[in-house]
Amino acid sequence: MTEPQSTHRVLLVEDDIRLANLIVDYLKSHGMHVEVERRGDTVLTRLINYKPDIILLDIMLPGMDGLTLCEKLPDYFAGPILLMSALGSNEDQIKGLELGADDYVVKPVDPALLVARINNLLRRNAKPPQAESHCLTFGKLSIDPHTQAIRLGDTEVDLTSHEFELLWLLASQAGQVLSRQYIYQYLLNIDFDGKDRKIDVRISRLRKKLGDNIETPFRIKTVWGQGYLFAPEAWNN
Questions:
Q1: Contact (CB, 8 A) for 170 and 105
Q2: Any residues with CB less than 8 A from the CB of 158 and at least 6 apart, and which?
Q3: 106-136 in b/e burial notation, b at 16+ Cβ within 10 A?
Q4: Average pLDDT score over residue span 30-37
Q5: Phi and psi dihedrals of 12, rounded to 5?
Q6: How confident is the model over 8-33, as pLDDT tens digits?
């Protein structure tokens, strides 16, 4: 039987061999290329050679648990992360989502539902090319959309793809307050539910990397009750 042509690359991080084999067989029957990693502490090394479109991540793993790994992944991986766990309480799900996961499913999960969740995340993660083709400069800060190079004075700032997307969105509309709803719709193609903290976490990381004051930010400002504002005049020093 000929396997359908692969359209998406999946990294499945799961130490249950029987379950992993069942998931692999089902995903392959739906045209996906799947590789399996059985330990949490070897995932980051695996990403050097395998460039997945999405990561399916179990929480209970040897070497490094999935929640700890979920915090580290955004520095190495720009695609969506789908957590899978037998821990199904609201608290467990909220914790996983706040740590950076894009979705959460409770095991055992129906295979058809898993495929639907994967396809939904991949659709949401697909971004059109940046419409702006020019570099942006604010004082000592320069942003190159072609290479995603960021310089602040003489220092090159290393951002993840997610962080760059957010910075570019804010900087390309400098001086304007962007609501969380707008940011969620633009970057994630979902509505802001009032609870999700993914964008807040990315804002916090941007501030740290760009030398903003964490307690009283003046470069990427929080406008309470409205959203975030990139201050164009704050980058001269």
A1: no
A2: 150, 209
A3: ebebeeeebbebbebbbeebeeeeeeeeeeb
A4: 93
A5: -100, 120
A6: 899 999 999 999 999 999 999 998 99
Whether pLDDT at 209 is above 70: yes
Written as one letter, the residue type at 222 is T
pLDDT in tens, 150-190: 999 999 999 888 889 899 999 998 999 999 888 888 887 77
Question: Sheet holding 220-223: strands in order across?
Answer: 177-178, 227-230, 220-223
Question: Would you place residue 196 in the very low, low, confident or very high pLDDT band (cuts 50, 70, 90)?
Answer: confident
Domains located in the chain, CATH noted: 8-125 (3.40.50.2300), 136-230 (1.10.10.10)
| pLDDT at residue 6, as a whole number | 46
Of residues 88, 80, 230, the one with CA closest to residue 170? 230
pTM: 0.58
